[in-house]
């Protein structure tokens, strides 16, 4: 199969690679670009472990072809915080025990990051609905919801203090 030249912006950096047009974005990210935060879970879009932010929307990278991502701006868990400076969401997941095994955590946090950009003051019901496409087999979701709500509160407190 003929490979295409793929140009993306991933976590704020312009990147180029060769990929088969029908190759999935998750494989391009992990295998060609070495970005291993998004996980390969079910490969059917049910679990959300592969969730990334693409052009301002949460998408499941196991359902996007490389050709569809041409020119896209993509943010993964690696672009949300750093090991030295965690994002508020990452801190709240740690503080409120929103993770156990950690497999779903990158997709959960990436989805929650977009959710809070779309709705900075969500209710518990809105968080549950907004996170419904991401599955966790360990936590029972209560602490994930607490983590997202705590992050929303923290982000809004910081925003109000800045104003």
TrEMBL record:
PROSITE patterns attached to this UniProt entry: 2FE2S_FER_2
InterPro entries: 2Fe-2S-bd, 2Fe-2S-bd_dom_sf, 2Fe-2S_ferredoxin-like_sf, 2Fe-2S_ferredoxin-type, Beta-grasp_dom_sf, Diverse_Oxidoreductases
Keyword Kinase recorded: no
Gene3D superfamilies (UniProt xref): 3.10.20.30, [2Fe-2S]-binding domain (1.10.150.120)
Protein name per its UniProtKB record: Carbon monoxide dehydrogenase small subunit
Keyword Oxidoreductase attached: yes
PANTHER family listed in its UniProt record: OXIDOREDUCTASE WITH IRON-SULFUR SUBUNIT (PTHR44379)
Matches recorded under Pfam families: Fer2, Fer2_2
Lineage: Bacteria, Pseudomonadati, Pseudomonadota, Alphaproteobacteria, Rhodobacterales
Organism in which the protein naturally occurs: Rhodovulum euryhalinum
Coiled-coil intervals: none
Segments forming domain 2Fe-2S ferredoxin-type: 4-80
Keywords in alphabetical order: 2Fe-2S, Iron, Iron-sulfur, Metal-binding, Oxidoreductase
GO molecular function: 2 iron, 2 sulfur cluster binding; metal ion binding; oxidoreductase activity
């Amino acid at each position: 199969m003929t490979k295409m030249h793929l140009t993306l912006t991933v976590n704020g950096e312009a990147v180029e690679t060769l990929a088969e047009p029908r190759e999935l974005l998750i494989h391009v990210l992990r295998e060609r670009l070495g970005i291993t935060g998004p996980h390969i879970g079910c490969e059917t879009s049910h679990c959300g472990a592969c969730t990334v932010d693409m052009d301002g929307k949460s998408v499941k990278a196991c359902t996007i072809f490389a050709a569809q991502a041409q020119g896209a701006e993509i943010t993964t868990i690696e672009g949300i915080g750093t090991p030295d400076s965690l994002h508020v969401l990452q801190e709240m997941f740690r503080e409120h025990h929103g993770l156990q095994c950690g497999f779903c955590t990158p997709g959960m946090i990436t989805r929650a990051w977009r959710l809070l950009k779309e709705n900075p003051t969500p209710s518990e019901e809105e968080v549950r609905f907004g996170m419904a496409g991401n599955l966790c087999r360990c936590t029972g979701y209560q602490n994930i919801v607490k983590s997202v709500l705590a992050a929303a509160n923290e982000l809004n407190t910081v925003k109000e203090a800045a104003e």
